[in-house]
Model the fold of this input.
Amino acid sequence: WKLANFNAGQTILDLGCGPGFCSKELAFMVGNEGRVIGVDKSEHFIHFLNNLKDQYALNIEAQQADFNDMILQPNSLDGMYCRWALAWIPNPKEILLKVYDAMKPGGRMIIHEYYDWSTLQTEPRKSGLANAIASCLRSFKESEGEIDIGRELPILLEEIGLRVTSTRFMLKLAMPSDFNWQWPKTFFRSYFPRLIETNYLNESEVRSALKEMDELEKTKGATLCTPLMVEVIAEKI
Done:
Protein backbone atom coordinates (compact mmCIF):
# COMPACT_ATOMS: atom_id res chain seq x y z
CA TRP A 1 0.00 0.00 0.00
CA LYS A 2 2.92 2.36 0.66
CA LEU A 3 4.46 1.46 -2.71
CA ALA A 4 1.16 2.42 -4.37
CA ASN A 5 1.00 5.64 -2.33
CA PHE A 6 -2.34 4.80 -0.75
CA ASN A 7 -3.00 7.64 1.66
CA ALA A 8 -5.45 9.67 3.73
CA GLY A 9 -8.45 11.11 1.96
CA GLN A 10 -8.47 8.59 -0.90
CA THR A 11 -11.21 6.30 -2.15
CA ILE A 12 -9.96 2.72 -2.36
CA LEU A 13 -11.73 -0.35 -3.75
CA ASP A 14 -11.13 -3.62 -1.92
CA LEU A 15 -12.08 -6.07 -4.67
CA GLY A 16 -13.02 -9.46 -3.27
CA CYS A 17 -12.88 -8.11 0.28
CA GLY A 18 -13.97 -11.30 2.06
CA PRO A 19 -14.79 -10.59 5.71
CA GLY A 20 -13.13 -7.18 5.40
CA PHE A 21 -9.95 -7.45 7.45
CA CYS A 22 -8.04 -5.47 4.80
CA SER A 23 -10.98 -3.13 4.25
CA LYS A 24 -10.77 -2.26 7.94
CA GLU A 25 -7.04 -1.46 7.75
CA LEU A 26 -7.50 0.50 4.54
CA ALA A 27 -10.27 2.52 6.20
CA PHE A 28 -7.92 3.43 9.05
CA MET A 29 -5.37 4.46 6.41
CA VAL A 30 -7.67 6.71 4.35
CA GLY A 31 -9.22 8.24 7.47
CA ASN A 32 -12.47 10.11 7.94
CA GLU A 33 -12.05 12.06 4.71
CA GLY A 34 -11.46 8.92 2.66
CA ARG A 35 -13.64 5.95 1.78
CA VAL A 36 -13.24 2.22 1.22
CA ILE A 37 -15.55 0.25 -1.05
CA GLY A 38 -15.55 -3.45 -0.17
CA VAL A 39 -17.06 -5.78 -2.77
CA ASP A 40 -17.77 -9.47 -2.25
CA LYS A 41 -20.53 -11.80 -3.41
CA SER A 42 -20.81 -13.54 -0.04
CA GLU A 43 -23.71 -12.30 2.07
CA HIS A 44 -22.00 -13.65 5.19
CA PHE A 45 -18.77 -11.74 4.52
CA ILE A 46 -20.58 -8.49 3.75
CA HIS A 47 -22.61 -8.84 6.96
CA PHE A 48 -19.34 -9.30 8.86
CA LEU A 49 -17.82 -6.25 7.14
CA ASN A 50 -20.82 -4.10 8.03
CA ASN A 51 -20.38 -5.15 11.66
CA LEU A 52 -16.73 -4.08 11.51
CA LYS A 53 -17.77 -0.79 9.96
CA ASP A 54 -20.23 -0.08 12.76
CA GLN A 55 -17.93 -1.32 15.52
CA TYR A 56 -15.06 0.97 14.52
CA ALA A 57 -17.13 3.81 12.98
CA LEU A 58 -15.33 3.49 9.65
CA ASN A 59 -16.17 5.06 6.29
CA ILE A 60 -16.76 1.80 4.41
CA GLU A 61 -19.30 1.07 1.72
CA ALA A 62 -19.98 -2.67 1.65
CA GLN A 63 -21.38 -4.05 -1.61
CA GLN A 64 -22.68 -7.59 -1.85
CA ALA A 65 -22.28 -8.22 -5.57
CA ASP A 66 -20.71 -10.39 -8.19
CA PHE A 67 -17.86 -8.48 -9.81
CA ASN A 68 -19.91 -8.33 -13.01
CA ASP A 69 -22.71 -6.50 -11.17
CA MET A 70 -20.76 -4.22 -8.83
CA ILE A 71 -21.54 -0.51 -9.11
CA LEU A 72 -18.58 1.85 -9.49
CA GLN A 73 -18.82 5.51 -10.41
CA PRO A 74 -16.57 6.82 -13.23
CA ASN A 75 -13.47 8.71 -12.11
CA SER A 76 -14.16 7.90 -8.46
CA LEU A 77 -11.32 5.60 -7.35
CA ASP A 78 -7.81 6.53 -6.25
CA GLY A 79 -6.81 2.89 -5.97
CA MET A 80 -7.76 -0.77 -5.88
CA TYR A 81 -6.51 -3.64 -3.76
CA CYS A 82 -7.25 -7.19 -4.89
CA ARG A 83 -5.91 -10.42 -3.37
CA TRP A 84 -6.75 -14.00 -4.34
CA ALA A 85 -9.86 -13.02 -6.32
CA LEU A 86 -9.04 -12.91 -10.03
CA ALA A 87 -7.92 -16.55 -10.12
CA TRP A 88 -11.48 -17.74 -9.55
CA ILE A 89 -13.33 -15.85 -12.28
CA PRO A 90 -13.53 -16.50 -16.05
CA ASN A 91 -13.20 -12.85 -17.14
CA PRO A 92 -10.43 -11.06 -15.17
CA LYS A 93 -9.61 -8.66 -18.02
CA GLU A 94 -13.23 -7.53 -18.30
CA ILE A 95 -13.43 -6.91 -14.55
CA LEU A 96 -10.15 -5.00 -14.49
CA LEU A 97 -11.40 -2.84 -17.36
CA LYS A 98 -14.48 -2.06 -15.29
CA VAL A 99 -12.26 -0.95 -12.41
CA TYR A 100 -10.00 0.97 -14.85
CA ASP A 101 -12.99 3.01 -16.04
CA ALA A 102 -13.78 3.94 -12.43
CA MET A 103 -10.23 5.04 -11.60
CA LYS A 104 -8.89 8.55 -11.69
CA PRO A 105 -5.75 9.26 -13.75
CA GLY A 106 -2.80 8.39 -11.53
CA GLY A 107 -4.84 5.83 -9.60
CA ARG A 108 -3.10 2.56 -8.86
CA MET A 109 -4.08 -1.09 -8.69
CA ILE A 110 -2.37 -3.51 -6.32
CA ILE A 111 -2.96 -7.16 -7.16
CA HIS A 112 -1.75 -10.24 -5.28
CA GLU A 113 -2.30 -13.52 -7.13
CA TYR A 114 -0.67 -16.90 -7.62
CA TYR A 115 2.19 -17.08 -10.10
CA ASP A 116 2.89 -20.82 -9.69
CA TRP A 117 0.65 -22.82 -7.35
CA SER A 118 2.68 -25.97 -8.05
CA THR A 119 5.46 -24.77 -5.74
CA LEU A 120 3.35 -25.99 -2.80
CA GLN A 121 5.41 -28.93 -1.53
CA THR A 122 6.88 -30.36 1.65
CA GLU A 123 10.17 -31.69 2.95
CA PRO A 124 10.22 -34.50 3.77
CA ARG A 125 7.93 -35.47 0.92
CA LYS A 126 4.86 -37.47 1.87
CA SER A 127 3.40 -39.41 -1.05
CA GLY A 128 -0.24 -39.32 0.08
CA LEU A 129 -0.07 -35.63 0.91
CA ALA A 130 1.70 -34.87 -2.38
CA ASN A 131 -1.04 -36.72 -4.26
CA ALA A 132 -3.75 -34.69 -2.53
CA ILE A 133 -1.93 -31.42 -3.24
CA ALA A 134 -1.62 -32.39 -6.91
CA SER A 135 -5.35 -33.14 -6.96
CA CYS A 136 -6.06 -29.65 -5.58
CA LEU A 137 -4.08 -28.12 -8.41
CA ARG A 138 -5.83 -30.30 -10.98
CA SER A 139 -9.22 -29.17 -9.64
CA PHE A 140 -8.13 -25.54 -9.95
CA LYS A 141 -6.81 -25.98 -13.48
CA GLU A 142 -10.10 -27.56 -14.56
CA SER A 143 -12.20 -24.74 -13.09
CA GLU A 144 -13.46 -21.69 -15.00
CA GLY A 145 -10.65 -19.45 -13.74
CA GLU A 146 -6.85 -19.56 -14.07
CA ILE A 147 -5.16 -20.34 -10.76
CA ASP A 148 -1.83 -18.89 -11.95
CA ILE A 149 -3.34 -15.65 -13.26
CA GLY A 150 -0.51 -13.73 -11.58
CA ARG A 151 1.92 -14.60 -14.36
CA GLU A 152 -0.43 -12.99 -16.90
CA LEU A 153 -1.04 -9.78 -15.00
CA PRO A 154 1.81 -7.53 -16.24
CA ILE A 155 0.86 -8.05 -19.89
CA LEU A 156 -2.87 -7.90 -19.17
CA LEU A 157 -2.58 -4.62 -17.24
CA GLU A 158 -0.46 -2.99 -19.93
CA GLU A 159 -3.00 -4.07 -22.56
CA ILE A 160 -5.84 -2.27 -20.81
CA GLY A 161 -3.87 0.96 -20.54
CA LEU A 162 -2.04 0.88 -17.22
CA ARG A 163 1.69 1.22 -16.61
CA VAL A 164 3.22 -1.47 -14.41
CA THR A 165 5.29 0.29 -11.76
CA SER A 166 6.31 -2.60 -9.50
CA THR A 167 6.45 -6.40 -9.41
CA ARG A 168 7.79 -8.74 -6.75
CA PHE A 169 7.49 -12.38 -5.80
CA MET A 170 5.87 -13.36 -2.51
CA LEU A 171 6.97 -16.74 -1.16
CA LYS A 172 7.03 -18.21 2.33
CA LEU A 173 8.73 -21.25 3.81
CA ALA A 174 6.77 -22.52 6.79
CA MET A 175 7.82 -24.75 9.67
CA PRO A 176 5.41 -26.45 12.11
CA SER A 177 6.19 -23.92 14.84
CA ASP A 178 5.47 -20.94 12.55
CA PHE A 179 2.17 -19.11 12.22
CA ASN A 180 2.57 -19.52 8.43
CA TRP A 181 2.04 -23.26 8.92
CA GLN A 182 -1.59 -22.67 9.88
CA TRP A 183 -2.67 -21.58 6.40
CA PRO A 184 -1.84 -24.85 4.60
CA LYS A 185 -2.94 -26.89 7.61
CA THR A 186 -6.42 -25.37 7.72
CA PHE A 187 -6.69 -25.29 3.93
CA PHE A 188 -5.92 -29.01 3.63
CA ARG A 189 -8.48 -29.93 6.26
CA SER A 190 -11.10 -27.81 4.57
CA TYR A 191 -10.43 -28.51 0.90
CA PHE A 192 -9.32 -32.15 0.72
CA PRO A 193 -12.76 -33.48 1.81
CA ARG A 194 -14.43 -31.33 -0.85
CA LEU A 195 -12.40 -33.18 -3.49
CA ILE A 196 -14.24 -36.38 -2.58
CA GLU A 197 -17.50 -34.83 -3.78
CA THR A 198 -15.92 -33.86 -7.11
CA ASN A 199 -14.17 -37.23 -7.57
CA TYR A 200 -10.62 -35.90 -7.47
CA LEU A 201 -9.90 -37.93 -4.31
CA ASN A 202 -11.55 -40.77 -2.42
CA GLU A 203 -12.09 -41.02 1.34
CA SER A 204 -9.06 -43.26 1.86
CA GLU A 205 -6.77 -40.81 0.03
CA VAL A 206 -8.05 -37.91 2.11
CA ARG A 207 -7.52 -39.80 5.38
CA SER A 208 -4.00 -40.73 4.29
CA ALA A 209 -3.12 -37.17 3.27
CA LEU A 210 -4.38 -35.63 6.52
CA LYS A 211 -2.63 -38.31 8.57
CA GLU A 212 0.64 -37.53 6.78
CA MET A 213 0.13 -33.82 7.42
CA ASP A 214 -0.18 -34.60 11.13
CA GLU A 215 3.01 -36.67 10.94
CA LEU A 216 4.80 -33.86 9.13
CA GLU A 217 3.77 -31.40 11.83
CA LYS A 218 5.50 -33.59 14.42
CA THR A 219 8.70 -33.91 12.36
CA LYS A 220 11.53 -31.72 13.63
CA GLY A 221 12.88 -29.49 10.88
CA ALA A 222 10.01 -30.20 8.47
CA THR A 223 9.28 -27.43 5.98
CA LEU A 224 6.46 -26.49 3.66
CA CYS A 225 6.98 -24.23 0.66
CA THR A 226 3.84 -22.20 -0.03
CA PRO A 227 2.53 -21.44 -3.53
CA LEU A 228 4.51 -18.73 -5.30
CA MET A 229 2.57 -15.48 -5.43
CA VAL A 230 3.30 -12.22 -7.21
CA GLU A 231 2.46 -8.63 -6.37
CA VAL A 232 1.84 -6.34 -9.32
CA ILE A 233 1.25 -2.60 -8.98
CA ALA A 234 0.05 -0.64 -12.02
CA GLU A 235 -0.88 3.01 -12.56
CA LYS A 236 -3.57 4.53 -14.76
CA ILE A 237 -1.78 6.90 -17.10
